[in-house]
Amino acid sequence: MIRFLIPLICLVLFFMEPVFGLFSPLNIGGELNYIVPRFLIMFLIFLTLYYDLKHAMFYGLFFGLLYDVFYIDIIGLYSFLYPATCLAAAFAFKRIPQNLVTATLLTLVLLGVFEFLLYQFFLLISLTGMPLGTFLATRLWPTMVANSIFLVMLGWVFKSVMVTQLSERDTKIGLY
């Protein structure tokens, strides 16, 4: 039963993102600020760092494809970016000190790159016409602040789940 914990967490986070997206846009100081929750990609990055790259890329591909089908109707965008972000996290985490603080900072940096790549792609296909300054001020920074609050609150939970799952997998006898 414990082996279904990671997919269950991924599924819950996948369905939590649109619920928290309902709080957006926020009117702060007479300006609309858009917050895009990215709980699943943050969990996938932690899955990459503390569990296994292969599992993270599989879940990234699966949930990226689900995200493409259900939310944006551009098949391939998230199903490419989720595993690519996991791969970048694994590459970068091998070259920096491996602790929770650096994992959190790496996750936030990769989340910023992820959002910027999405913005560039949508700008390329003319799905958005938002200037870069407006994107940075009204979407990227509020998104980064909101997701960093979520990550600071639950980053240690993500890590403890991964470490527990890893120890369970290593002590289990069989073909897991």
UniProtKB/TrEMBL annotation:
Bilayer topology term: Multi-pass membrane protein
Domain of life, source organism: Bacteria
TM ranges: 31-51, 101-128, 140-158
UniProt keyword list: Cell membrane, Cell shape, Membrane, Transmembrane, Transmembrane helix
One of the Pfam families matching this protein, by short name: MreD
Compartments it resides in: Cell membrane
Family statement drawn from the similarity comment of this UniProt entry: Belongs to the MreD family.
NCBIfam families for the chain: shape_MreD (TIGR03426)
Descriptive protein name: Rod shape-determining protein MreD
Organism of origin: Planococcus wigleyi
